[in-house]
Structures are given as structure tokens and as C-alpha cells.
Write a structure and sequence with these properties.
Oligomer: homotrimer
Distance between the termini of chain A: 20 Å
Number of strands of chain A: 9
CATH architecture of the largest domain in chain A: 3-Layer(aba) Sandwich
Order of helices and strands of chain A: HHEHEHEHEHEHEHEHEHHHEHH
Shape of chain A: globular
Largest sheet of chain A: 5 strands, parallel
Structural class of chain A: alpha/beta
Helix content of chain A: 40-55%
CATH topology of the largest domain in chain A: Rossmann fold
Radius of gyration of chain A: 21 Å
CATH superfamily of the largest domain in chain A: Aspartate/ornithine carbamoyltransferase
Low-confidence stretches of chain A: none
Largest interface: A-B, 37 and 40 residues
Number of helices of chain A: 14
Chain lengths: 398, 398, 398
Amino acid sequence: MGKKRIQSLITSLAKLKTDLYQKDFLLTWLQSDAELKAVLTVADILEQMYRANISTRVFDGGLAVSNFRDKSTRTRFSFASACSLLGLTAQDLDESKSQVAHGETVRETANMISFVTEAIGIRDDLFVGYGHEYMREVSESVELGYQAGVLPQRPAVINLQCDRDHPTQSMADLLHLVKTFGSLKKLRGKKLAMTWAYSPSYGKPLSVPQGIITLMTRFGMDVVLAHPEGYDLMPETLEVAARHAAESGGSFTQVHDLAEAFTGADIVYPKSWAPVSLMEKRTTLLKSGKGHEVEALEKEGLAQNAQHQDWECTEKLMSLTTDGAGLYLHCLPADITDVSCKAGEVAATVFDRYRDPTYHEAEHKLYVIAAMIMLNRFKKPARVLAGLLRKARPRRAG
Amino acid sequence: MGKKRIQSLITSLAKLKTDLYQKDFLLTWLQSDAELKAVLTVADILEQMYRANISTRVFDGGLAVSNFRDKSTRTRFSFASACSLLGLTAQDLDESKSQVAHGETVRETANMISFVTEAIGIRDDLFVGYGHEYMREVSESVELGYQAGVLPQRPAVINLQCDRDHPTQSMADLLHLVKTFGSLKKLRGKKLAMTWAYSPSYGKPLSVPQGIITLMTRFGMDVVLAHPEGYDLMPETLEVAARHAAESGGSFTQVHDLAEAFTGADIVYPKSWAPVSLMEKRTTLLKSGKGHEVEALEKEGLAQNAQHQDWECTEKLMSLTTDGAGLYLHCLPADITDVSCKAGEVAATVFDRYRDPTYHEAEHKLYVIAAMIMLNRFKKPARVLAGLLRKARPRRAG
Amino acid sequence: MGKKRIQSLITSLAKLKTDLYQKDFLLTWLQSDAELKAVLTVADILEQMYRANISTRVFDGGLAVSNFRDKSTRTRFSFASACSLLGLTAQDLDESKSQVAHGETVRETANMISFVTEAIGIRDDLFVGYGHEYMREVSESVELGYQAGVLPQRPAVINLQCDRDHPTQSMADLLHLVKTFGSLKKLRGKKLAMTWAYSPSYGKPLSVPQGIITLMTRFGMDVVLAHPEGYDLMPETLEVAARHAAESGGSFTQVHDLAEAFTGADIVYPKSWAPVSLMEKRTTLLKSGKGHEVEALEKEGLAQNAQHQDWECTEKLMSLTTDGAGLYLHCLPADITDVSCKAGEVAATVFDRYRDPTYHEAEHKLYVIAAMIMLNRFKKPARVLAGLLRKARPRRAG
């Protein structure tokens, strides 16, 4: 039964026209719909195989490099899990022990770590205007190395969160929606509210809301972005969202009222972030060696946040959603009022009701990462997956 | 030959009535005799298989998470070794990079790191009254996640040392005794002296002596606990030891004289520890944010130790043991007089004579850890082991 | 085709008389020519197998331990890559979390980490007079443990750079020369200039130039060592180089003029290092607890360097080499003028032209490490390699 379903997913995968082989998937809005579907499908196949105890080890040796330029638990474990399932050894590039910097050196380091490397996962979300550029530089560096024959293979560069997008998160969220509502098609016409929420911490990255509004507008959904005045996202992502909505027959609107956003919503994603203007100021301070002024900026940001403590996902707000049963999403960890902080993004009873669904949402991420690696590294991924299914080598003995 | 012996161990394993599948083994005194025997037997089988060059890789992908809340070399390597032999990828949960804390968050993190995780090894021995509780919280968290279908499997939680017990150490010590004396039965009537010993360092955990007196009293041994006045263990463990001795037909006595403890002993385990009262004071200081007062407490502890420099395992004391040839045990590293310090737990000539045996004692630990993982993760471990033996896939080529 | 070439390499390997099984390869000058050829041949075989998608996983479980006593990116990744290809799990021995020190304790730790360990890679290059000694101590410790039956196998100790030699680097450099010029024989009569070069950083280790002059003089090359007055290497290595040149029919000369060294050179290796006298002073300061005086010494060293900014590998100098097309070598990272620093070891246009060759040079290192492990761990490496070729298990699916 499990196998039949997996077989049918492989068949749909084989029909998709994609161009992901040896190409990096850095921002969802640079990929075609078919490519997004391919990632979702491969992620689903790998998840089903795991649960059916079918080994997905497609590599018998070789490295996967992780490069975290920000603290991380969830993403670190997602990447390590994905690599382990594919048979790759994860090795951390700890920059405090290396000379990765600019220009020549990024190119050199990217090649030096890649002689037997199949994937490089990078998290670089702290500096607005730099994270995506760094990933592109690494991507171009390994491409050059591969073209020159220096690298026997071209490692996939996986965006584990940059300043603009968080594709492994938003694609995991999308897979969660597909599984919850039944299919991509059934998302058409659904209302999704991506809203700011109060948090007592500061400087949370923009990539999650940006990733959500740009991705979810592609499938005919009605996406509403809600935040207090001043909490703007990067303008580029608003344009992409508007364009996607127009193309898909959905809509993209912005409001500054939480209740309005929740009213009639099928899906809500209340989550804190810092205004792009503040993130830019911080980036400028840090890049110009004025790190000592960041503390003042942080205070400013927290004071600004404190004016919006009423932006909390309460039971009352949830009752405004469709049938009072809208789906709550969060990338975790959430700031839960009276649990992880005095006042936060979400009321404890709301979070409690959606805890297990958010855990499922999080689980998908590791399979999205594994899918991105496979699609980049194999010319005919459907054939490779069919081979795994045919052999059905058990992942655990017994 | 090796294979015949392994086969006979598997046969005995199959006869043991145990209930370890998907249950955590956190304190030896909560497990049945049969379960202890099962751990010893599986550890022995895995060790024999390793030496017979038979692969024990029962997993083809999947994680093992280590969470060290105290410095560690030996245990860290034991855990990594065990995971490597089973085919799991060890991934460290470095709390300086995560948000593991209290309440909700332990539950969340435990689930977030466990989507493809088969084992979580935890060392948390510094805070009296907290280490075991933390492990139980992690254990309950993954159980809830598994019951809710969030986790496809329930990872084994392995106690790599808590405030109360050090089961992988004490079970490795027991396996060492079984191998030295021939069988569990032959331990009956043997005298084991678990004694305090002087060390110039402070705050050594209580879990080793507590683990030894609670475990060794179960097999009809005469266990003597010896320490200077004031160096008490946690009362709970003394009660357990007394009860075990009564049930097994052995004995458990306490003395405050080192020579008395050594006299006629078949086995001696001289090792330093801190008084439970001091550990409790330290815990209170640290938990109430008075970390600065710990230094004063440390001086107090060292001064108290210094009054007992004569508690050293000397040749003269060893001559009091049975035939002057009692077996010396230590969990390592030992404080060796004139080698690793000016005055320590043991005389250099004594340690020198027992160095290789203590190394063998230490070796067993990795197989005990692997055994605990296997017994938790496989419903029919004897069948899985029999499968490994039948295939006899070489661990190294050639 | 690839397979035929690999087969012929295995055939030549089988003919070499070597004694590397369970012996450590710590300094190239302690090994026979046949042993050097065996390392080069196995490295080449493993590299060809990787490119032919043939799995080289000879271990199905087991550890490889890395012990870096200095910062490292390249070597760390080389070692991790080699281990991954052989099927070993790399585990870092982080001394900040352990008790590795002197005497007894090195012996104990070496054994404690080695129960299932096949290789221990050590980098210890900062203290002149100590790095090699530490490696020997580890080597002897595991030998004793193995002889006593404490260790089921004797791990290979791999020198990842000591104070005297950098054998994985120099052997990778040699493999690069063999591949560039066609064979070891074709190196005979070639002129190689190992020269000092200016760097704005200080305290670069001596092991690269020492490794080069001692190794390259063995094959009939004309090796010229050039450096400003005062930048002497360890005398022992000069003697070895002179002896090797006399034995091989090559030559070893020293000059203090960069143009003279480059004139007519087929190969140039311009690279900065610190004078041995300064390194000794630093070692003495650090070992005697006078770390605060090191800063003054560093300033002194940089000032000394600054007098030799003209020691740069320029286009003009390169034009003096054979046909103006001498091969540029570097162990990377190079200090590139106007790229990684204002004034450095090499002009940007020169480095640019040789970037890809230096990347290839670097790539060989991981295969040299893997070769050293295999030759130490297998009695009949040719048979093991032939087995891998026969099975030709794909390293990546598809």
C-alpha cells in the first residue's frame, strides 16, 4: 500500500519538466511551478520511504558541508538528518576556524571543501543585502571549479535561510498545506494571513514572511500580509508577491489590522519580524565597525515592538477564522504567552491545540532539503527513486 | 569458534523475559534482573562480533543525538563509537547554540531533533536533583511525540550519567567482573569495596559510587561502602543498596575506615567524590544565580578533602585484599600519585599493574551503550543479532 | 578504460616491497622509496575510483579521530573527506573538553579513543621540538595498547602536519608533479626552487619547506632552497636534503637570491615561513608561561618580514623560469598581492594563471591521507583494492 502510493508519486515526478540538475535553488521565485512541484513530490516520496523503512541512501561516501552564519538548532538538525538519510557525511565549516572572507577567498574555500562534496547548506540571514549574495558567490565558485575540472562533481548549494527567502521552510510549509488540504489545487481560493506578531525579542529575520508571501501567492490563494505601520518587508518581495497573485488568479493585499487579516482566513501564520529599515541600519553599523551602536538600536527596536503587544494570536482572533478552525502555522520556536515569555506571539491554548500540526510542519523540512539535494545531484531523479523502491533495502534491520 | 560462542549468547538472550522495547533504561534499579542480563549479553555479543569482524550496522541512515551538559572525552567517544557500529550518524546538540530550557521548550526541542533519530544520549550530572528529571522529561517528550504520530519512531534515551546513576559505567564495570570472574553466579559471596579516595580536585559526581552500590548488591555480593565522615551519598541510593542486598542474599555495609574495607576484598573501587550536601549547596547557589559564591564553596570542599589525603589506594592496602590480589576497578581517569598529581587516589605502582584491566573495563562501555540502543529499538533483538551473524558481512574489507 | 588504468596501477602496487602494515608514516625520510611509491599509487587509485564512481568504502563502521592542535580548514576537510570515502566516522578530539596532557595521560587518552578506531589524524605544528614527539607518543601508546590486547586493532596515526614535516602535503605536491610531468622518472634533472616569500602575517610553520626539500631531493631533482638571511629551517632537514640529493644523483643548494633561484627553474614553490630561531623563542616563551611576551616577538617577526617585501613571485620572476612557463606550486591559501593583502607572496596575475593547477594539487591531499590509512590498516592493500574494482559498487546511485 505504502509502496503503491510511492510508485504513483514517482510516476507524477517523471512527468514534470524541470531543469534542476546541477542548478541551485536559492529563491523560490526563480524556479518554475514544475520545479516547485518536483521538490514537493520528491520530499513526499522520501518521507513515505522513511516511514515504509526503505533506505534512501543514494551515496556510499561523500561529504555534505554546512555553513551556519547564525545560531541554529532546527535547521542544523534538518540538514544533518537529510544528509544522513542520503548517505552523506555532514561536516561543519566553522568560520571561526577558517579564512572564508571575500573575493578570491570565498572561491578558494568553496573549492577546497568540495572535492568529494555533494551538497553545501548555508544559513546567512543576519545581514540584509548580503546573505543571498554570499550564496550566489559560493554557487558561482563551485560552478567554475566544476567547469574547470577541478571538482569531479558540482555540489548543490542549499539555501538554509538567507536575507530574502527561506525556501526550505516555505516549501515545508507548503507541503504541510498540501497534506492538510489534500492537494495543491485545493489551496486555490483559500485565504492565508501572514501576520506580524509581538515578541519580546528583537531582530527576527524577514525571510519567513517574505518566503511565505512570495510562494503562497503562486497557487491561487488569497494572501493577506498584515503588520503594524513601519514593519515593512523588502520591497522586492512585495512586488514578487503581487506579480504571482496576478498570474495565478489569487490575490495579495496588505492591511494594518490583525482582526481584519484573521477574518475568514483558512490559514494564519502569526510571527514576529524586525522592520527592514532597522535591519538595514544594523547591517550598516556592523559592516562599518560600529558594533557598539547596535545595542542602542536593539533597545529602539524592542521599544517599537512593545507598542504592539496586542498583536497576539488569541482565541478571540482564531474564532474569526473560517469556521473558527483556521489552520495555525509557525516555523518554530514560537514565543508563547505565559509559557516561553510573559507576552508573546500566540496564546498558550491556541498553540497547544496546534502543537502537533506545527511539529508535522517542521518535520517536512528535512525531506525538502533532501529533495533539493537529490534534484540537483541526479539527472533522472525519478529513475533513482524507482531503483530505491524496487530494491527496498530496509533502513533498519529486523 | 567465535561464531559458536556468539550463537550461544544469542540463544541465552532469546530466553530472557524483558520489556525494554521502546522503554528507556535510566536507572539500573528500575530494571529487572533479566533486563540487566539482556544488556550484558547484547553488549558481549556486539563486542565479540566486532572482534570477529562481523558488521553490526543495523541502521542504514538515521541520527543519534548526544547532549552533553558536562565536559566529556571518554563518554563522548563511547557514544560516538556505539553509534558508528550501529550505522547511526551522531549529531551533537550543543545547547549554547539552541534554546533547550524548561517546560514546553524541552518537549519541543526533543521532538525537533528526533524526526529520524534512533537514540538520544544525555549526560547531565552536575546538578543534584535535576539530571535524572531532565532525562525523564526528554523521555516523556519523545513518548508523547511518538504517540501523537509526530515521530515515526521513538528514540531511545540513553543515560550517559545523571545525578543519581551512571548505568553505562556500572554495567560496563559489571561486565568486566563477569569476564574476570567467569559468570554472574561466580560473583556471589565476593566482597567488593566501593571506597572514597583522596583527590586534589573537587566536585566529582556521586553517580559512580551510587551506581556501583545499587547494582553490585543485586548479585549476592558483599558490598562495603567506605568513606570519611561527611562524604555521604544520596540517601535514596543507600536504601536501594540495602534492599538489593537483602533480596539477593548478599550484604551492604558502611564503614569509615579504608583498611577495614580493603581487608579480604576481592574487588576494590577507590574513587573520589564530593559530599552530597556540598553538591546540593552548589546546585542551590547556581540555580539561584549566586554563581560567584561557588568559588568559596569549592575552597571549602578542597580543604575538607585535604584532611583525608591518607585515603589513597596504596600497595599496603592492596596487600590486605584476598591473596593480596584483589581486582582494582576505576572508571578513569584516575588521579595517580606522582603521575597526574602530587597526591591522589591511587599509588602509581598499583595503577600500573591494573592499567590494562581498567582499559578493558572502559572498552565495555561502548558496547553497553550500543546494547541499550538495540534493546530499546528492536522488538526482537535476538532475531536481529542472529541475522547479523548469519550474514556475517565483514566490517572491514579484505 | 578508467578501469583498465586502475587495474594497471593495482598491478604495480602489488609489486612494491613495503612494510607499512600497522606502521606509522610520520616523516617521509623514514620511509623507503617503495613506500613512497605505494602511497602515491594507492592515492592515485582511490582518486581514479572516485572519478569512476566506484565506492571505496572498505569499512562498515568504526571511527577516525582528528586531533587538531592548530586551526585548520583544508586539512580538516581533507581528513573528513578521506574518512568518509573509506566508510569511517570522523570524530574530533577537542582538547578543550578533554584531559590530554603529558605522560600517562597521553597514553590513556590514546587508548580510550581507540577501541573501534582505525585512524588518528594529528596536526601539531606550532611548537618546534614538540609536534613530532607528541605524534610518536600517541603512536607508541596505541602500539602498547594493541600489543596488550586492549585495542582490537592498531589505529594508523596520520601526521597532518608537525613541526618537522608535512607529509600529506608534500606527497600531494609530489603526486601533482608526477601527474604534471608524466612520471616520477621524468622529474629527474628538473629544477625545483623552494623559496621564501613575503607575507604580512607571521609565524607560518616550517613544515612545508622542510617537507619539500627533504622529499623532492629523493628523485634526482635539482632542489634550490632560497630565503633571505636569517630565515633558516631546522638543521636536521637540511642534512636530510643534502643526503637525499647525493644518493639520488640530484642536487641540493642554498642561495639568498630569489632571481637566482627562479632562473631556469621548472617548478617554483614561493611561500612564507618564520625563521626557526623565532619559532624556538616562541616555543620557549609559551612553554614557560610567558605568553604575554609573544606579542613583542610577533612584532619583531613582522618587522623582519617587512624588510623583504621584494621577495614576491612576480611575472618578471616567472619569466626567468624554463620557457617562462615554470610550474607554480602552493599549499594554499596564498597571500596574493592586492587580493588577500596589499603585498604578499605572489602577484595576482601569476596566481590567477595557476589557480586551477593549485586546486588540483590540493585535491590530491585527501587521497594521500586515505592511502596512508589503507596502507597501514590492510596487510594486502592491492588485494583489497582489486576487490573494490571487481565489485565496482557505485558510490552514487543512478
